[in-house]
Amino acid sequence: MVQRVDPPPEPPVTLSSPAELLAGYLDFYREAVLRKLAGLSEEELRHSRLPSGWMPLALLKHLAYVELRWLQWGFAGERIDEPWGDVKIRRGEWHLEPGETLEDVTAFFREQCARSREIVAGARMEEKAATLGGRVPAEEDRPTLIWILFHLLQEYARHLGHLDIARELADGTLGE
Q1: In the chain, what are the domains?
Q2: Is residue 176's pLDDT more than 70?
Q3: Of these four, 73, 124, 130, 131, which has the most CB atoms within 10 Å of its CB?
């Protein structure tokens, strides 16, 4: 049985500042991911319906680490002990620890998003990343903050599409 859920409003159509537009859509997609996961059973959160094996809860953990890697580790140049905590092997499959719950991963995700907002609030869009994966690249290889935010936006949009399909297969829920 298909159940339709009306999506919340997008950021205002009157926004003209690129920074405000990117921030508004990032928050829109961050919350959309959490809405998609809300109501899924523990079994569905940890179950994959795809040959690749990814699980909805592991996707949320991945997005938390994407925030951490791009904005804390990369842009701000903060020391991060485990920047690849969403995978056991870099570029490997996403993983969950046996005891990780939706509440745990959601809290971690929200912490990373809050820290990302702090970093963005204290920077200019044209500023370049301090590091790139823990190393300091040549000036021309360091992405600007606006590039990083756009990259994050497309990553969220792509993964939210994946999650749309997983949610529909799980319980027939459509919409954001």
Answers
A1: 18-175 (1.20.120.450)
A2: no
A3: 73
